[in-house]
């Protein structure tokens, strides 16, 4: 076997691989002999099928498999031995593959394209980034109290629909002439939340309506999530391509949340029986919780700003054309070059962050210990159970579940990726200078939304802002 590398430019290269019969024949013969031992065929005793028949039946497929396995192993070893860092995986040149005659050729030659990992140097020492300290104020407390009153409130029927109501109705699929489609989709009493609809025009269709009112709507303008859309229309997954774009929606019910009263019953529901006994205690506790929540969001924004600054200040060139080709080739589901172009900016940004992270991990010898991985799994389990009211759990039970989680290579990888992210972001945060600015809650929400472009696109509005604007929405 002969492997040679040719650099195309600073970010792409090709590997040329030449194979002779001596490189693969012994392995091919071994696999075919194993096939012969296991073969069962009418007219022959088990294991006695002539090798000529075995070669005729399986020879080509075994040859292809073994050469592909040999090439994959050889490329991996070559990259390791020569300490070559690549992005994605090497791609075979399709035009060369199509010329191979697997029936007659004894010697083979293959060329693989590679995207090379660029050198990355991160310099953030002299960068100055604003960190917002949100001040306590009545607006913040009132928003949080309203959220709790919504969360523990109850739904009542309403006469005219408003944005934060749940509008229930029947979906009926129509033909282009507005007649009911024979055999079309019909879903009774399906709930729609107007405030969750991104298009203002479509949202208006559901407002100021009464029971019995009807109008035409495209369900895909209401929900763009496949899971949410299939649930709304009562479909099975994978059936969305069958639906039309015109449905009649007839209002059957309007459900509005009635805020819980500020009284002992609410205090007991929120914090447990008897924990809070006076109105002032409730306000003081909610004020502290609200401020902590917003400060956490401010801290998260600071981390995001640090990462964004690292991305903008670190010059990283990528082998873009190779990566686009690799994305088309390697995606599990079929994807077109046009789709790759649409998503490439986001992919490129993620790739650059991984390169920055990898550079800093190596430069600062950042490691994640087994105990850190286990503790992260424990924290995850405790948080999950706490959501369902099981705040106190047997430590041994938590340990047993945590160990099972990190036994999974995929779960362990996810946990460790998060831990490395946390450590690298802290390292970056510690390396920059901060410009501390005191700010009101309302001003902070405005800044958070401006960063997300919320004025133009509801879908990019921060979850934090939506939380305080809409509160907890539950279906009944």
The geometry reads as extended
Architecture of the largest domain, CATH level 2?
Answer: Orthogonal Bundle
Number of helices: 15
Spans of at least 5 consecutive residues whose pLDDT stays below 50 are 454-476
Helix content: 40-55%
Structural class assignment: alpha+beta
What fold name goes in the CATH topology slot of the largest domain? Trigger factor, domain 2
The overall average pLDDT, rounded, is: 88
The profile of the biggest β sheet is: 5 strands, antiparallel
Order of helices and strands: EEHHEHEEHEEEHEHEHHHHHHHEHH
The radius of gyration over CA amounts to 31 Å
**Distance N to C terminus:** 68 Å
Question: What is the domain total for the residues?
Answer: 3
CATH top level class name of the largest domain: Mainly Alpha
The number of strands is: 11
Strand content: 15-25%
Describe this structure in words.
This protein has about 475 residues and is α+β, with helices and mostly antiparallel strands. It folds into three domains: about 1-115, Trigger factor ribosome-binding domain (Alpha-Beta Plaits), CATH 3.30.70.1050; about 155-260, Roll (Chitinase A, domain 3); about 265-470, Trigger factor, domain 2 (Orthogonal Bundle), CATH 1.10.3120. The chain contains 15 helices and eleven strands. The strands form three sheets. Strands 6, 7, 8, 9 and 10 form a five-stranded antiparallel sheet that branches. It has a four-stranded antiparallel sheet with strand order 1-2-4-3. Strands 5-11 form a two-stranded parallel sheet. Strand 1 (about 1-5) and strand 2 (about 10-20) form a beta hairpin. Helix 9 packs across helix 10 (about 335-365) and helix 11 (about 370-385) packs across helix 12. The longest helix has about 35 residues, at about 280-315. It starts with a strand and ends in a 6-residue tail after the last helix.
């Amino acid at each position: 076997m002969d492997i040679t590398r040719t650099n195309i430019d600073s970010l792409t290269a090709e590997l040329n691989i030449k194979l002779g019969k001596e490189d693969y024949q012994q392995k091919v013969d071994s696999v075919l002999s194993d096939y012969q031992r296991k073969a069962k065929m009418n007219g022959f005793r088990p294991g006695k099928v002539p090798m000529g028949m075995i070669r005729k039946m399986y020879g080509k497929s075994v040859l292809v498999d073994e050469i592909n396995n040999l090439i994959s192993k050889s490329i991996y070893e070559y990259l390791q031995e020569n300490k070559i860092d690549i992005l994605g995986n090497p791609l075979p040149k399709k035009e060369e593959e199509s010329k191979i005659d697997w029936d007659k050729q004894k010697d083979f030659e293959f060329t693989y394209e590679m995207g090379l990992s660029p050198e990355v140097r991160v310099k953030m020492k002299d960068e100055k980034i604003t960190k917002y300290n949100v001040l306590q104020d009545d607006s913040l407390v009132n928003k949080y109290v309203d959220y709790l009153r919504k969360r523990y409130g109850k739904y009542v029927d309403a006469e005219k629909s408003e944005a934060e109501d749940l509008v229930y109705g029947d979906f009926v699929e129509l033909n282009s002439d507005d007649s009911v489609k024979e055999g079309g989709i019909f879903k009774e009493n399906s709930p729609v939340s107007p405030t969750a609809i991104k298009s203002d025009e479509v949202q208006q269709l559901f407002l100021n309506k009464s029971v019995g009112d009807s109008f035409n709507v495209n369900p895909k303008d209401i929900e763009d999530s496949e899971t949410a859309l299939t649930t709304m229309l009562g479909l099975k997954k994978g059936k969305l391509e069958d639906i039309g774009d015109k449905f009649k929606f007839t209002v059957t019910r309007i459900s509005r949340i009635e805020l819980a009263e500020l009284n002992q019953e609410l205090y007991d529901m929120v914090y447990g029986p008897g924990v809070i006994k006076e109105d002032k205690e409730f306000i003081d506790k909610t004020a502290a919780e609200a401020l902590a929540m917003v400060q956490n969001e401010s801290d998260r924004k600071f981390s995001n700003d640090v990462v964004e600054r690292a991305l903008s200040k670190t010059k990283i060139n990528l082998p873009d054309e190779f990566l686009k080709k690799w994305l088309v080739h390697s995606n599990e589901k079929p994807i077109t070059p046009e789709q790759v172009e649409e998503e490439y900016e986001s992919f490129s940004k993620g790739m650059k962050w991984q390169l920055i992270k990898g550079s800093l991990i190596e430069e600062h010898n950042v490691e994640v210990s087994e105990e850190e991985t286990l503790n992260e799994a424990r924290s995850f389990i405790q948080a999950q159970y706490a959501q369902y009211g099981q705040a106190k759990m047997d430590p041994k039970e938590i340990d047993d579940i945590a160990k099972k989680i990190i036994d999974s290579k995929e779960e362990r990888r996810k946990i460790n990726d998060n831990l490395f992210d946390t450590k690298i972001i802290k390292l970056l945060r510690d390396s920059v200078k901060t410009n501390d600015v005191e700010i009101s809650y309302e001003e902070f929400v405005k800044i958070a939304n401006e960063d997300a472009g919320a004025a133009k696109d509801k879908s990019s509005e921060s979850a934090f802002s939506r939380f305080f604007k809409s509160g907890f929405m539950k279906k009944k």
